[in-house]
Amino acid sequence: MINGIINVYKEKGYTSHDVVAKLRGILKQKKIGHTGTLDPDAEGVLPVCLGNATKLCDILTDKSKAYRAVLLLGITTDTQDITGKVMEERAVTAGKEEILEAILSFRGSYDQIPPMYSALKVGGKRLYELAREGKEIPRESRKVELHSITVESLDMNTKEAVIVVECSKGTYIRTLCHDIGEKLLCGGCMKALTRIRSGEFDITESLKLGEIETEYKNGTLDEHVKSVPAMFPEYECVTVKKEFDKQLYNGNFLVLNQLEQEKINVSNNKVLVYDGENNFVGIYEYCPEQEIIKPYKMFL
């Protein structure tokens, strides 16, 4: 079984679940999980956890993201993207400078209302299920952080702007496009979306499913799989004395004199723990008051 994280380029037409299902067939293993959905019409970076690295899915989902999107002004749809039903068409009367100013004004924190066509659950049902039933329910706004917005191009003839957004988890780029359009009083929707970065995974190093299958058949896929410890270069590494390996494997806490290191210097209170044979076992929390380390996530 392969253990680690692979940077998948999700192509258009696939859901994130489709990617996982296809990888299970390619790699012939069941234990696979993705780290955050991408809409079927979106493409780009989708980190996928393999084997025991699936325990990282929740951590990697929390990472910041970066997207390149095409904003189309003058059209409002029920899904907030071009695939939806057109609800309204309005003239774009704003000039180029006004449009640029409106787009850039969303930098920083803002309260975003999740779209009805989203996977968020309300009362046990996903919003998109309710939307498909023709229902719309009130949604509470959520604070999102747009670390940066760059306008790569703005075509006043087609009323399209290509924007690059770096943002916190939970940000809906199609809702951002909708909100920009509302601010300009002309409406707007998302025409295209590519995730160019998720955490430390960049689109330039991503592999399409076909490329992954070729690498797997050639026996070279390991070169593209990132190990769990490699995901946390900021964490200090500690080794347990061989005679205490059994205690380590059982998931017990360990006192410092059971480690090869006499002292731990950490600023983020997490350490990578290896057994007496130098095999990675898990991420532990360091508790300086008790001078112990205790399990946070085990990867046996």
UniProtKB/TrEMBL annotation:
EC number annotated for this UniProt entry: 5.4.99.25
Swiss-Prot/TrEMBL catalytic activity: uridine(55) in tRNA = pseudouridine(55) in tRNA
Domain tRNA pseudouridylate synthase B C-terminal: 174-226
Active site positions, chain numbering: D39 (nucleophile)
GO BP of this protein: mRNA pseudouridine synthesis; tRNA pseudouridine synthesis
InterPro entries reported for this sequence: PsdUridine_synth_cat_dom_sf, PsdUridine_synth_N, tRNA_psdUridine_synth_TruB, TruB_C
Keywords of this entry: Isomerase, tRNA processing
Source domain of life: Bacteria
Domain Pseudouridine synthase II N-terminal: 24-173
Pfam families: TruB_C_2, TruB_N
Top-rank EC class of the record's enzyme: isomerase
Record has tRNA processing as a keyword: yes
GO molecular-function term, one example from the UniProt record: RNA binding
Function: Responsible for synthesis of pseudouridine from uracil-55 in the psi GC loop of transfer RNAs.
Family: Belongs to the pseudouridine synthase TruB family. Type 1 subfamily.
Name of the protein this chain belongs to: tRNA pseudouridine synthase B
Organism: Anaerocolumna chitinilytica
